[in-house]
Amino acid sequence: MQSTSELPDKCNDTIAVLLDKYKDNEYILQRLDYHINTGLETTLHTEAQNHEQRLIRANNLANEQAMFVKVFLSKHRYYYLMQNNLGCFYAYDGKHYRVVKEDDILHKLLNTISHDSGLQDWKYKTKNNIIKQIKETTLLKAVPESATIQYVLKCLSPKVFPTRDAAKYFLTLLGDNILKKNRDNIYLIYGKAKNFLTQIDSYAYITMGQTNITRNFIKYHESHAYNNCRLLSINDNMEDTISIDQSLDMFCVACHYSNRFTSADDYIARKAGETLKDYTLYLKNNSRDVIIDTFCSEMLDNTECSTGNLPIYTLKWKDMHYLWKSFLLNLNLPNMIYFNTLKTILVERYEYSEIQDCFINITSKHLPRICEFIEFWEKHVHSDAGNELEIDEICNLIKVRGMQMDDIEVLKVINHFFSEEEIIDNRYIANISCDLWNKSDDIADALNKLKESCREKGDTSFLSFEEAYNFYCDTFSAKQVVSKGYFEKYLRTTAGHYIEYETFLHSNWYTQTEN
Fold this sequence. Notes:
With 515 residues, the protein is an alpha+beta fold. The chain is built from 21 helices and 17 strands. The protein has helices at residues 7-21, 26-75, 102-116, 123-135, 146-156, 164-178, 194-208, 244-261, 264-270, 274-280, 282-285, 288-299, 317-330, 339-349, 368-380, 391-400, 407-417, 439-457, 465-475, 484-494, 508-511, and strands spanning 77-83, 86-92, 97-100, 186-190, 217-218, 229-233, 301-302, 314-316, 352-353, 358-360, 362-363, 381-390, 422-424, 428-434, 463-464, 499-500, 504-505.
């Protein structure tokens, strides 16, 4: 734009040129005189007024647009993320996040402008402004309402994590992974969490385009430095814990926690309770040698004696291995040392017989009842195709023998020392029986008595499985009884041709005499 100081000269030059050009044209000279000396001021005054009005209108529209944008984005909370070179929009209603299409946003936006504002002339300008602002509002910095946070915590605790504190820690470190923080940290998982973590990875890719966000969640590998390792305990046997809709809420809360607490390590340092802090940082705060020292002091007893007249105690490597697994289980620790490495370290510490694969003059106060159970098993439990024993039944059988072990410990011992056995649903063991209890004979004896009772009554109505089972339980109320499932399985096997309506015995079962 030309400076105002040069404008007079330019105007004079222009008039001079026009005067010279039309010096012989009286009409044009009159018109020039009119336009300059009469009409120009009026024209400029009108244009000035119009310009001022346009500025006022534009300013009013700009103010109205700013207010409209502010109110619209306050009422309708939208976010944006780039996914594999494609943009994805999200909406939040104060409770849950969801993926939305841009067309849905545009429809709501344009419809609102048309009905609720004076911005019709600026409709598309306003639309572009709002879409631009949404694209600048990343989902990874969204701040969820308390209702959303509590909803996510309720989904995770106690079903996935034992405490809310542990759930918050998990969310924070998950947020760290989404935001690509603390890439050197390794999270060692205690518990069967493979399906849960695979599900999270899948949902993160579908909803946010993020890949492998649980990449540093591992079972264990000896090459990792303890200083970078953190422990994470997850409950076992979780199926379909989080739906894909719930996962987006979880990811947003995770990013919020990561932004709020800076990182998972900072959460542990500043917010976590002492129990969670000690557990999470167990490997960071304890070297491998310290952990093995703790194991030896808590689980092993040195029985070395100065005279050759006393018996020499030995501890088989298999028993030592079992004690190590028990030590880890009691502390909810993943196996951070490979068994071959552990054996090498212990062989260096204690006298060891390679021929017998045992340690000399070493025993454990934790083993006597284990040895007693193994002796019981080897003496009284036998292979028996088609039969089965429940873990609870085994606990009752050893209790009669004076042993006290709960079902978890019994299952643990069988898994370790009798790994060839087929354990189903952590509940019962297939194809075995115990010579201290003939389950089939007890059932047969009770059913024979039941037949006699029915014949004496002269009743010819059908007999339900439940009535038969209750009679069996009453008959052996002072002894151990089989489960209802086993009882019904026995009936279907031995009296299948008398069964009616799936769970009733025909009267012929007790009225007909067996040949």
